[in-house]
Design a protein that fits this description.
Structural class: alpha+beta
Largest sheet: 5 strands, antiparallel
Number of domains: 4
Strand order of the largest sheet: 9-8-10-14-13
Helix content: 10-25%
Number of helices: 5
Shape: flat
Number of strands: 26
Radius of gyration: 29 Å
Strand content: 25-35%
Length: 451
Amino acid sequence: MKHKTNKKILIIFSLIILSTLLLSSFSLAQKPLEVDYPEVFGETLPEKPVLPEYIKYIFNLALLLGGLVAFGALVYGGFRYLTSVGSPAAMDDAKNQITAGILGLVILLASYLILTTVNPQLAILKMKKPFIEQGVILNPGTANEQYVRVSISNLQAVFGETFNAQTLKFLTSPSDIKARVCSNIDYNEPCQEITAPDTNTIVSLPAQTKSISLHLKLPGIYLVKDEEEIFLSSDIPNLALNNFEDKATQIKFKLSKSDVQNGTKYGAILHEDREYQGQAKIFLSSQGPFAAVGDGGEVIQTISGATAYGCVNNVSSAHIFTITTSTGDIKLCKNVNCEGTSGTDWISISSPEELIPVNIDSFGLGGLNDNLKAIEINGNYLVVVFANHPPCTTGLNPQPYKSQVFKTSNPDLTKEPIGDCGFVCYWWLGPICVYSTTFLCPSSVAIYPIK
């Protein structure tokens, strides 16, 4: 009988673990929540959770469910014991169930205490990231080693209440980055700038370091929010992995002396959704006021709002590029695979220079607007296709527009998010459509020759 009880307990806990694993598999999508999750132990999921936040929530939920199951088994065992008077076998079975319930509660309580009291670091879930080229390492070579790429206003809020930054090592040349540590959160004084002769030197930090400010001096593109900034060295499909999703309020172009002398132009396409989806806006270093800084300069622009280059309110992903000159052509087509004849079914744009978003029909091929089915790119070009000409709204019922970036040819845009458009009826009453909507189709493009 005892063997059967233990088998039941094993099955129950196996189901809990299996449910946890199944739930965690859904967390890999890293999409905004579609439902409101209940609060567990005073915590709930943020609007756009990442994997560690999912796992921590599921762990707390599993503890709660496990506790309820164990408590239920304990209560049920007590009820069976009280109603089994006169049946020694049933009373022994009930005693075993009560013992198992108490043991389950003790195990759950012990695991919770170990993870939250004895060693809280075990409860801090972190995703291993690839090697970061720019930034610093706090406490290098120790168990509390942490890679830092952006400014952090409260180190303990990010790395745990027991975290203590004692040493620092530069990942990039110390001459290319300004590191400043403060003894209070939010970069409040007293603060001290940290320097080192090279990337191999480990520098001691002031006691009670609570925040760190990092500012790269490298030329290029940066997203900025107050004291924090992140360097965009390449396309980023998900800024949540850099702890900078929906944070940026400004974009900054840092230009070196040679950039200024040679007229180098940097560009960025900022997207509201991850994986380069949703609304987008183009930013160029040639736009906005130029401010001289040292031998070079800076151009700073506000991100939110609508212009002729698009509109965004938040930033979740980004394309970056450098504008140059290029030879080649771009073909815009009404038909899949660019079938048909020139001037009727498609139009070729030879060696296009920098082109801000314009209506597709302005190229001289009538009927191309809302009917772009394929793009052929010959040469080094970046093409941004907008579904709805900026600034993002149209008609009496404005709706967010879509956009998509292409660096190579695409023979069938109908299979792409930008081509998922047209009339959709949600409610038919016989032959009459009672409720419908029209998803915007490609209507404008921007073209940039890139390196």
